C-alpha cells in the first residue's frame, strides 16, 4: 500500500469518523451526562469494536454476506429496533447523579447509565453508518489481492485516526455540561439527542 493510498484512507477515516452519526450522537450525550472518564468504556468499545469489524470485512466477510443479501435486511431492522430502544431510554430516563464514582440507586432502571465496552462494540454490527464506512473503506483502499497484513494496516490506520474523532464528541459533550446543569435543560438536550438518533434511521430504512 503506497503513501498516497494511506493518506487518502486516513483522510477518509477522519472525515467519516468525525461527521454526525449514531455513535457520535451517543458519545456526545455520554459526555454531557457522565463526563469524559466514565465515557471511556463506551468510547473504546466504539473504536476497537469498529476496528474488529473492519478486519472481518477486509478478510472476506463482505463477500460472504453479498451471497446472502437478506442478512443485511435482518441487520437493518435489528439496528433500527435497538436504536429506537436507546432513544427511548435517553429521552425518558432521568440522568444519574454527577457526584460519586458510581450511579446511585443501581436497581432503578429509570436512571441513565454509561454504555459499556462490549455493548458499544456489539453495536457496530447493527450500526448502518459503521457498515457503510467499513465496506467503503475496504473496497476503495484495499487492492483485490491484498493480504492480511494490508487489511490490518488499514484497520489500524482507521483506529488511530478515528479514536481522536470519537474523543472529540465526548469532549464536546463535556464542554456543554456547564450549560446543562439545570435539569430541564439537560432533559431537553437528552430528548433532542434521542430525536437525532431516530432521525438517523431514515437513510437506513428508506433503502
From TrEMBL:
<feature type="transmembrane region" description="Helical">
    <location>
        <begin position="188"/>
        <end position="205"/>
    </location>
</feature>
<keyword id="KW-0472">Membrane</keyword>
<feature type="transmembrane region" description="Helical">
    <location>
        <begin position="44"/>
        <end position="62"/>
    </location>
</feature>
<protein>
    <submittedName>
        <fullName>LysE family translocator</fullName>
    </submittedName>
</protein>
<keyword id="KW-1133">Transmembrane helix</keyword>
<dbReference type="InterPro" id="IPR001123">
    <property type="entry name" value="LeuE-type"/>
</dbReference>
<feature type="transmembrane region" description="Helical">
    <location>
        <begin position="151"/>
        <end position="176"/>
    </location>
</feature>
<keyword id="KW-0812">Transmembrane</keyword>
<dbReference type="Pfam" id="PF01810">
    <property type="entry name" value="LysE"/>
</dbReference>
<keyword id="KW-1003">Cell membrane</keyword>
Amino acid at each position: 500500500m503506497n503513501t498516497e493510498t494511506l493518506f487518502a484512507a486516513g483522510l477518509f477515516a477522519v472525515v467519516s469518523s468525525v461527521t454526525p452519526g449514531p455513535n457520535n450522537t451517543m458519545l456526545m450525550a455520554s459526555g454531557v451526562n457522565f463526563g469524559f472518564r466514565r465515557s471511556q468504556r463506551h468510547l473504546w468499545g466504539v473504536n476497537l469494536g469498529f476496528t474488529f469489524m473492519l478486519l472481518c470485512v477486509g478478510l472476506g466477510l463482505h463477500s460472504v454476506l453479498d451471497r446472502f443479501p437478506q442478512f443485511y435486511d435482518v441487520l437493518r431492522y435489528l439496528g433500527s429496533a435497538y436504536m429506537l430502544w436507546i432513544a427511548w431510554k435517553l429521552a425518558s430516563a432521568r440522568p444519574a447523579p454527577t457526584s460519586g464514582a458510581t450511579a446511585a440507586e443501581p436497581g432503578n432502571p429509570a436512571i441513565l447509565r454509561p454504555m459499556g465496552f462490549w455493548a458499544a462494540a456489539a453495536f457496530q454490527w447493527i450500526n448502518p453508518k459503521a457498515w457503510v464506512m467499513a465496506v467503503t473503506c475496504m473496497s476503495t483502499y484495499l487492492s483485490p489481492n491484498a493480504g492480511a497484513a494490508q487489511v490490518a494496516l488499514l484497520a489500524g490506520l482507521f483506529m488511530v485516526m478515528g479514536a481522536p474523532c470519537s474523543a472529540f464528541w465526548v469532549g464536546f459533550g463535556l464542554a456543554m455540561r456547564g450549560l446543562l446543569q439545570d435539569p430541564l435543560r439537560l432533559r431537553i438536550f437528552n430528548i433532542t439527542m434521542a430525536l437525532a438518533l431516530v432521525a438517523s434511521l431514515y437513510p437506513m430504512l428508506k433503502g
